Each structure stands twice: as structure tokens, then as C-alpha cells.
Amino acid sequence: MPQYSKQITEFFGVFFAYTEIIEKSRLFGKCPFHWNYERNRIAVDFEFVPYYKFWIKICIIFISSIIPTILIFRGYFNNKFYGVDSLQENVPFWVISIYTACIILAIGIAVIILPMIILWDRFATSEIERSFKMFLTLSEVHPKSDNGCEISVKINKIATFTAHLYLKLTIIVTIIFVTFDMDPLHYLLPRWTRSVAIVLLRLILFLISVTEICRLVVIAIFFALFAINALKREIQMWIDIARRSNLGGMHFYRQIAILYTYRIRWATMILTIIVTVGFMLQVGYYENSEEFIYANIYLINNISLFTILMNNSVLATPPKTA
Predict the structure, then answer these.
(1) Tens of pLDDT along 180-194?
(2) Is residue 44 in a domain?
């Protein structure tokens, strides 16, 4: 057992839930984002051989879902705006609306998560190590009753529930889409190919697509839970130290400034992306120009606020001591 097995469980508990429930399920399987048992850390590995099933799934998604969806949109808009007949002319508008909402949601999550995964070794690894070392230091000087372990217990329970939920949700969404003929292949295959075998093939291919989309959503949720757990535990333990003595309080404010300085730039970029994607989704539902202009102005103001915070991050740098 590792020396800090208990602390590792409390700090990285959400990723244990991801590994034990999501990755070990036959439906999802392993992917480059995984828990490294040798190092006791979350890791990202883009090698093909260890995760060949995942990369094969990605290829299947492109062939069975992404390309057909692009063809459906192209055929639908060609028929709507240019009167060009196509196989996609019978696609209902509500199906197009559902596809649009799903695409925007998937792109929004991908824009937030993928840069962090791609830059994992450059940013996330060092930041997680820094946070974990501080977590260990604070835990050593706090009794169990005051270190906020109940926060980790609650968040880990939420992560476990979320993992089990998405296992079932993946199957439910697939059955609903195929049953009501909302999967992309339904509108591309000729009508004479509606046999039981073809329906079963559509079900399997669409299940693969939904599985990986749900995996992306789960990773995003677990990242958020992990950040909430780490920050709340740090803050609670520092506040407890600050209440005990004036010297502890001064040290508390210094450490908060250090944490702010380390994290502000990356947090600003992530928050900016989240706000931008969120307002793009909101603006997408507006119909009149006045609301569209108002939303854009509000979006620009928020981005400007985050930029100002990033530029002023130097103010949070603690003075150097001899």
C-alpha cells in the first residue's frame, strides 16, 4: 500500500470512481485518460497499442456518426435553401434541432476538456502535484475532525453516483434514438435496408458513439468535482489554521496569494472558454437582433473582466524575503 493511501483516496477519489466504474465496464473500457496504479496519479497516454479499442471506436464514430451527420446537414440545407432533392429531405426539423443541440454541447465540452488533456504534461501534472503536496502538508497538522474529510466523502459519493448514472444513461439514450429513428444512419440507408439485422447494426454503432460522448461528459464532470474537492479542502484547513493564531492567519493569506498567482492564468483561460461557449449556446436560441446584440455586449464585458483579472495577477504575488 502507498504511504499516503488514505490521502490519495480523499484527494483523487473521483478518479477512482471513474476507473473502477467507467473504465472497468465492458461498455466503456479504457482510454488514454486513465489512472496509473504504479505512480498513483491520473495520466494521459496517447499510445495506440495499449488503447487500440478506444482508437478503433473513434474511427467507427467518424464513419457511422460524424460523417453521416455532416451529410444530413448538407442535404437538409441544400434542399431547404436551394431546392436540391436528396435523401435527407425527409429529415424532420425537430431531429435537426436535436442534432444541432447535441453538436453544440459536444463541441463546448470538447473545447473545455481537450486542451487540458493535450497540455496535460505541461500544465495539469505540475499543478496537481503542487496541490497534492499542499494537501498532504495541511492534513498532517490537522486532526481528522477538522481537516474536512467529510467534503471528500460527499464528493466521492456524487462521483460514484454520476458514474453509475452515465452507464445506464448511455444505453437509455441509444435505445430512445434508434427506436424513434433519430440516429444518423436511419436517414442515409435506403428504405429496403430496414431489416432486424440492420436495426441491430445501427443500435451497436450508435451505442459506440453515445458511449464516447458520455465519456467526454463524465470526464468534464469529474474534473469539476476534483477541483471543487481540492479547493474546498485547502480553504477549510487554511481557515482553521487562521482561526487558531494571528501568525497562522498571516501565513494563510500568504498561501492564498501564492495559490492565486499560480492558478490565475490557466483558470482565466478556462473560465473565458466556459463563458464564451455558454453565451454562444445562449445566443444560438435568440431570434431577434436586440437580444443578440445585448448578449454579445454582455459576453465581451465578461471576457474583459477575466482579462483584467489575469493582467492584475501580479498584484497577488507575495513579496520575496531574504
Answers:
(1) 888 888 888 776 667
(2) yes
